Amino acid sequence: MHRFPKLTLLALGAGLFAAAAPISLHAADASAVAPSTGHVETIEPLAPHVWLIRQAEPFQPQPVGNVTVIEQADGLVLVDAGGSPGSGRRIADLVRSVSAKPVKAVIVTHWHGDHYLGLPAISAAWPDARIIAHERTAIHMTGAPMANYPQGAPDAEFDRAMQQQGEGAIAFLRRNLADESLSEAERAGFARTWNAFQTLRGDMGGAFVVPPTESFADRLVLDDPEAPVEILHLGRANTDGDAIVWLPRQRIVATGDVVVAPVPFGFGSHAGDWIETLARIRALDFAILVPGHGVAQRDHVYLDRLTDLLNAVRAQVAPLAAEGLELAAIRERIDLAEHKALFTAGDPWLGRWFDQYWARPLVEAAWREATGQEVVQGGG
């Protein structure tokens, strides 16, 4: 039986949504929701030789990682590759819409599948492209926690299992669409998610892991006269193998899920190291920050807000853990209301996912840190 790690394309039925609180069921028919338009990714220029492909707004709880396209003299470099074969095919079309050059390299920022399960389509389009990842990410892609994904080729049993997981996601969405106790913003959010999921579910057919062709430990440079690329590991943060991509001429940094907007993801993270890694990113003196999800940032405000949030969680969790409180009791005592308001501006739809994607997992990460427990990639 397949067990899927968190933050993969079908997380709606496999992990993230499973963590949501139970929802009361009312009689209603989700078929009244309009069908999906298929509009999932958009592309926009960031600077000369650089474009951003990102999930269309507004915020969707089912993650599809950002892709940065960098044009060098002899080809294109992609930062991440989409979260499914379907996503990868759309990304390939968007890449061709801005340049006729071949993709010569893909940098995988971390092991979460929504950032590289599009590689089957990318590799089929450009089979000579290098696939580059940090050495820890390469281990996770080809072993635990991604070992249950097909490696190197599609698998029919896996596809059937993913479709079954999708049935659970559909049931979850139906319940929430029918829940009249939810706010108007939440109901509208679930309606958009229902639409998007019809496309996203079909995207997963034929998914498999394309392993990295090479890895790095601290730094790797893809040189170019106009758009040199530095691939850096600045420390652990959202995972133990986060790759940071720095374009010194354009002053653009792509962070993967070290930075995610409008609400961050905290699963399986290294809370204390994360703060130090953010400080190193800030020291790059970037003009544009491309997060793992969300719109590009053109100042340091969000980065500093995330740093403050991490400090607040650790400052509250550590003394409670020192008192010997268990995780459940600590969660009841933590107060992040002020920070939540800054990230969500009071939007109940964003607030729901701030709690599920950040507060619950990050409090656990800080508790593990405070009690000397290992953070296991893909663990609960």
Main sheet strand line-up: 1-2-3-4-5-6-7
Report the sheet-strand fraction. 5-15%
Distance between the termini: 18 Å
Radius of gyration: 20 Å
Unreliable stretches (pLDDT < 50, length at least 5) are: 1-38
Give the assembly state of these chains.
single chain
Main sheet: strands, sense, barrel: 7 strands, mixed
Average pLDDT reading: 89
Q: Could you give the order of the helices and strands?
A: HEEEEHEHEHHHEEEEEHEHHHH
**Strands, count:** 12
Number of helices: 11
Structural class: alpha/beta
What is the percent of helical residues?
Answer: 25-40%
The rough form would be described as: globular
Please characterize this protein's 3D structure:
By secondary structure, the protein is α/β, with parallel strands linked by helices. It is 39% helix and 15% strand. The protein contains eleven helices and twelve strands. It has a seven-stranded mixed beta sheet with strand order 1-2-3-4-5-6-7. A five-stranded mixed beta sheet has the order 8-9-10-11-12, with no helix packed on it. The relative contact order is 0.14.
Keyword list:
380 residues, alpha/beta, 7-stranded mixed sheet, 11 helices
